[in-house]
DNA sequence: CCAACTGTACTACATAGCATAGTACAGTTG
DNA sequence: CAACTGTACTATGCTATGTAGTACAGTTGG
């Protein structure tokens, strides 16, 4: 599920937040789905429980998950909608990177081609993946 | 010239590196141009000399500038060409961000529009700006 | 009821990166 | 030779990150 790169300059807890966002957007995590427990993830990812909790807290703060003490942590009802709004910021990042490409003399068609390619590849298959596998006991 | 944001999570020395890259790409800094001295920049930007030097070292390591002890620091001959190669990485970043936008259900036309807009705006006016202003004495 | 799970809240500690401060040395230039 | 240039140190402080351990309260299934 999660892929943590401890060598990355991106903090571990932030990697977890980002990846969770992607799972929600991709439909791998659906509204109401239960997220693996702090202690479970801690063992699975070989990361300290506190680090996991920090990620969960951030996801909670962003309104993407709802924590229920004693029960677990669940994907919020409006998580996907919230993310759609947030991800609009990507357009600004794309603008910045494109500006550098203009300066560097890279052809416009190269940039357009990348965008087209991504849309063609992903257009048909959205949100058709399996949720977390059975967490069993523990 | 340089705009440093001390509140940013991006380190100051990295901001200097990035901005210098942009100046080179934009033609504000041309091959052979002299970069303001460490002590000069240190005062101008209200940044410690060591921080400036760290940025210079990084630019040197990337082959964008050549330091000459006693004389100064100059934009390398092939700096612009080198950057053109490096900036191709932006295409990968754009790919990632676009993938998220697909997931979030943002329309392809919105993305394309941003790219088109940037190219239309910058296409005509490339590399027509003033270099560093007279450094005078000191 | 109770053991075992769940989230949450602490304190303490270690480490790394960033930035500052001050000093020192060597090359260049007018 | 004075004043600039880049470079190389050491030392210090701060912050973010991550780890470690403990504790408490709610939930659940046997």
CATH class of chain A: Mainly Alpha
Which structural class should the secondary elements of chain A be placed in? mainly alpha
Q: Work out the helix count of chain A.
A: 6
Chain pair with largest interface: A-B, 35 and 35 residues
Global shape of chain A: elongated
| Total number of strands of chain A | 3
Keywords:
homodimer; 138 residues; mainly alpha; Arc Repressor Mutant, subunit A; three-stranded antiparallel beta sheet; 52% helix; disordered C terminus; DNA-binding
Give a quick precis of the structure.
2 copies of one chain form a homodimer. The first copy, chain A, is mainly α.
Describe, in plain words, how this protein is organized in 3D.
Two copies of one chain form a homodimer. In chain A, strand 2 (about 65-70) and strand 3 form a beta hairpin. In chain A, about 50% of the residues lie in helices and about 5% in strands. The model of chain A is unreliable at about 125-138 (pLDDT under 50). Chain A is mainly alpha-helical. The first copy, chain A, has a three-stranded antiparallel β-sheet with strand order 1-3-2. Chain A has helices at about 10-25, 40-45, 50-60, 80-85, 90-105, 110-120, and strands at about 35, 65-70, 70-75. Chain A has one domain: Winged helix-like DNA-binding domain superfamily/Winged helix DNA-binding domain (Arc Repressor Mutant, subunit A, Orthogonal Bundle). In chain A, helix 1 (about 10-25) crosses helix 3 (about 50-60) and helix 2 (about 40-45) crosses helix 3. At the A-B interface, helix 1, helix 5 and helix 6 of A face helix 1, helix 5 and helix 6 of B. Chain A binds a DNA duplex (30 and 30 nucleotides) through helix 3.
